[in-house]
Amino acid sequence: MFVVLFGCETWLLNLREEHTPRVVERRVLRGVFGLEREEVTGELRKLHNEELKGRYCSTNIVRVIKSRRMRWAGHGLMGKPEEKRPLGRPRRRWKDNIKVDLQEVGCGGMDRIELPLDRNRWRIFESQIMNFRVP
Questions:
Q1: Which residue from 113, 109, 101, 107 is spatially nearest to 76, judged by alpha carbons?
Q2: Which helix (H) or strand (E) segment is 36 a member of?
Q3: Residue-level pLDDT at 82
Q4: Closest-CA residue to 21 (of 31, 29, 94, 103)
């Protein structure tokens, strides 16, 4: 799964775009676990999503992406570019995703510059990201 997550710290994911990494994860897992023989008929069939979850007990790929993004944000929230952004920019920026992630953990009102400076609190927030309830 590490190849699939290459550079995920900088990805901008909204709810619709979170679907793609999940599909890729399930496709890779189906390739790893292969087909299953039906007990009654003896025919080969693909594994259902619930069966894949039962066989591969790892965290949700979206949780992993959010935790990596928060870990990386602890290093990159100090600077602020002085240039204006060009026309036609994306609707959601990377720092907007970080704000949403912080709100999900319960610290949306905290200063985004002061929080990473307290390394112990930042590590606690990183671990809380892994416990997100992701549909």
A1: 113
A2: strand 36-37
A3: 67
A4: 29
* Alpha-carbon gap, residue 52 to 61, rounded angstroms: 13
CB atoms within 10 A of CB 66: 26
8-state DSSP, 9: G
Our separate counts of H helices and E strands in the chain read: 6, 2
Q: pTM of the predicted model, to two decimals?
A: 0.61
pLDDT, tens digit, 9 for 90 and up, residues 67-116: 888 777 766 655 566 677 677 766 677 777 777 777 776 666 555 556 66
Beta-carbon contacts of 90 under 8 Å, excluding residues fewer than 6 positions away, are 12
